UniProtKB/TrEMBL annotation:
HAMAP family: CobD_CbiB (MF_00024). The gene is cobD. This is Cobalamin biosynthesis protein CobD. The keyword Protein transport does not apply. It comes from Halopseudomonas xinjiangensis. Belongs to the CobD/CbiB family.
């Protein structure tokens, strides 16, 4: 039953997109902020970080388990939970305005738009920097917001996707290596790393299979270990190789230049490569759906 539910949730996302109002993750963000204000003070913060993570995630995961097991409508609840967790259409909705602005030569508008989807400083980015940042965002967020959600849904159904999506949201909110979150946010960061470990490598393999395979595999093997994130490294190195472009390189975060290694091989990306990245993600989703249906069909045989 998981395969049809996954396909239905993906189609629902393509038709409706993310809810414009009252998205559950917005409410969860308010809850997480309140919990952080209550627990992120005093000492020791490491233990409080794990406790805060548990209070934010586990009750809602248990609630998802309860509604997923409701007689008659549990399957519908699971489909809706997956629909709310994936963001395939939103990748295009965030990236396409940047493509159009670059195509029109409106660098200021493109710069403002890319600032909404990346955490780096974007004020000084030129056209190449904007295209690079957007392409990186599409590849990495495709892994986090689409494929990892599908993976954990396939493993544990509705509760699995809720657990993953909330954990990923807390990492985005608490997983910073700054004074405020260095100790408190360690649990959120480590748990997200754990939950993304297998999905990220499956995504890297999928990107390779759906693009320039040999180059993508070589970039993954040689460049991913140099990246500071254990999961973003394989995804972005393989994705850059699959597209035949060069990503990474120096970037400014909170006023400091981070000397990131180069990923991929080939020319710097342009606006057209953002489109290619979106197509790579869509082809990869199609491949996942085909494989999942084959596995489902074999299980029924």
């Amino acid at each position: 039953m998981m395969a049809p539910l996954m396909l239905a949730a993906i189609l629902l996302d393509q038709v409706l997109g993310e809810p414009r109002r009252w998205h559950p993750l917005v409410g969860f963000g308010w809850l997480a902020s309140a919990i952080e204000l209550r627990f992120n003070r005093g000492q020791p913060r490491r233990n409080k970080g794990l406790l805060a993570w548990s209070l934010a995630v586990l009750p809602l995961t248990f609630a998802a388990w309860l509604i997923s097991n409701l007689p008659g409508i549990g399957w519908l609840a699971e489909m809706i939970l997956l629909y709310l967790a994936i963001g395939l259409r939103s990748l295009s909705e965030h990236a396409m305005p940047i493509v159009r602005a670059l195509g029109a030569g409106n660098v200021d508008a493109a710069r403002e738009r890319v600032g909404r989807i990346v955490s780096r400083n974007t004020n000084a980015l030129d056209e190449t920097g904007i295209a690079r940042a957007t392409t990186e965002s599409v590849l990495e967020n495709g892994s986090d917001a689409v494929f990892a959600a599908l993976f954990w849904f396939a493993i544990f159904g509705g509760p699995g996707v809720v657990l993953y999506r909330l954990a990923n949201t807390l990492d985005a909110m608490w997983g910073y290596r700054n004074e405020r979150f260095l100790h408190f946010g360690w649990a959120a960061a480590k748990i997200d790393d754990f939950l993304n470990f297998i999905p990220a490598r499956l995504v890297a393999l999928t990107y390779a299979l759906c693009g320039k395979t040999r180059l993508a595999l070589a970039c993954w093997a040689q460049q991913a270990p140099l990246w500071d994130s254990p999961n973003a490294g394989p995804v972005m190195a393989a994705g850059a190789g699959a597209l035949g472009v060069s990503l990474g390189g120096p970037a400014s975060y909170e006023g400091e230049i981070h000397k990131r290694p180069l990923l991929g091989a080939g020319p710097a990306p342009g606006a057209v490569d953002i489109l290619h990245a979106l197509r790579l993600v869509r082809r990869s989703v199609t491949l996942w759906v085909i494989v999942i249906f084959l596995i489902w069909g074999l299980s029924l045989a």
